[in-house]
Design goal:
single chain, 324 residues, Dipeptide-binding Protein, domain 3, seven-stranded mixed β-sheet
Length: 324
């Protein structure tokens, strides 16, 4: 409800009602029918149609989050850096972005937003190459067993991948990746869960093998990623934070601690460039693309401003009003 005593001008709208709709198809259908006035996450495959809807304003806005094939590096399959490198080489990012997401998001090699001063543009660019991926695994001793699935020291190269049930584009991406990995002897099963279960202890306590997830690594414009990458941020090991990959690297820990103590922007930039280089080399997460939000609202809603540094579309709701 509107609070007339809140500072600044407004509010001009008496109340804002939030709807929780985890199924992206249903969400778009309700926006299309007019049941929803504003939405910040129209699925990419609905963008072209949404842009033609009468009395709607649809815009693309770069987000601070990125989509990744996120690994639990404490799983025996993923402890070997060669496996992580091979997995990355075996993901056809271009086809996923262009074929499933209609070119709406843009490829990335890092967790740092591309509009950030601290974004490192000089990281190696992933190349989809199944022959190279198979060669990496062969040389590392991950060889096909009698069932065709690779194994090493009694560990099969088999794992589950999870994401939010009802997110149809992620589910299609999973199926595409599953098929591609199978061509080189990697068995990926799909085990999706409702949002409340997916992002509960299953995610927070690192109970997953791997996930498809969109993650925001920074808060606002500050580049500090201690919460996501420092070993003290592993909740499953008694830490506090969101390092759910259970990634641990003493050099990265030291750099993050130095970055948090450093005030000069250029000096900080060098520190976080180095962090990105190390994470890109070690691949505890396999970057897919930088998120682009497809925002949509009724043409009569005025005052809405998209803001990629916020987590909710309602950050400036006090300024909204309906055009007379």
């Amino acid at each position: 409800m509107a609070n007339p005593d809140y500072f600044g001008e407004g509010p001009h709208i008496e109340q804002v009602i939030f709807k929780y709709i985890p199924d992206t198809t249903v969400l778009y259908t309700q926006f299309k029918s007019g049941d929803i006035d504003l939405v910040g996450s129209i699925a990419a495959d609905n963008y072209a149609e949404a842009s033609t809807l009468a009395d709607r304003v649809v815009t693309l806005v770069s987000k601070s989050s990125m989509e990744s094939f996120y690994l639990n590096v404490e799983r025996p399959q993923f402890k070997d850096a060669a496996v992580r490198e091979a997995l990355y080489a075996a993901i056809d990012k271009h086809s996923i972005i262009e074929g499933l997401y209609y070119g709406v998001p843009v490829p990335t090699e890092t967790f740092m937003p591309q509009h950030s001063f601290y974004y490192n543009p000089a990281l190696p660019v992933q190349e989809f190459n199944l022959e190279r991926a198979a060669q990496i695994l062969d040389e590392a001793g991950w060889l096909p067993g009698p069932d065709g699935i690779r194994a090493k020291d009694g560990v099969r190269l088999a794992f589950a991948n999870s994401t939010t049930a009802g997110n149809h584009l992620r589910e299609q991406a999973q199926q595409f990746i599953q098929q591609t990995l199978g061509e080189i002897g990697i068995e990926m099963s799909i085990a999706n869960l409702p949002p409340a279960v997916m992002w509960g202890e299953f995610w927070q306590q690192s109970q997953f093998d791997s996930v498809l997830v969109g993650s925001n690594y920074i808060i606002g414009a500050d580049p500090d990623t201690t919460n996501r990458l420092h070993s003290a941020s592993i909740v499953a090991k008694g830490g506090r934070g969101s390092n759910n990959a259970q990634y641990s690297n003493p050099e990265v820990d030291a750099l993050l601690e130095e970055g948090a103590r450093t005030f000069d922007p250029e000096a900080r930039r060098a520190i976080y460039f180095k962090v990105q280089e190390i994470v890109r080399r070690e691949l505890p997460l396999l970057p897919l693309y930088a998120d682009t939000n497809v925002y949509g609202h009724k043409a009569g809603l005025q005052g809405f401003v998209a803001n990629s540094n916020t987590r909710t579309e309602s950050w400036n709701a006090a300024a909204w009003y309906w055009q007379a």
